[in-house]
Amino acid sequence: VSSSICSLQKTIDRYKTYTRENVNNKTVQQDIQQVKADALSLAGRLEALEKTKGKFLGENLEDCSIEELHNLEVKLQKSIHVIRGKKTQLMEQQIAKLKEKVMHM
């Protein structure tokens, strides 16, 4: 009877080990699939960003519609406005510093 219990316990232990490994294996496989899906998604997003960057640099515009070109132009004009505002702000700060230097001479 004791050897039967021991044998039964070994069988239960083997089953638990197998089940645990199988669950871990499934989890690893699911993680791998998720990472692959994420990588594909990121690759697609990167490609889209590269195309957008190229368009902002004036590259590959021959496939763009008039509406796309207009939208691109509007975005560039907004960017230029922001850049000029920042440039003006920095120049005004420099002028103020120079005026302060002149007054302390």
TrEMBL record:
Superkingdom as given in the UniProt entry: Eukaryota
Signal sequence, start to end: none
InterPro entries: TF_Kbox
GO cellular component: nucleus
GO molecular function annotation: DNA-binding transcription factor activity
A Pfam family assignment: K-box
K-box domain sequence ranges: 32-105
Name of the protein described by the UniProt record: K-box domain-containing protein
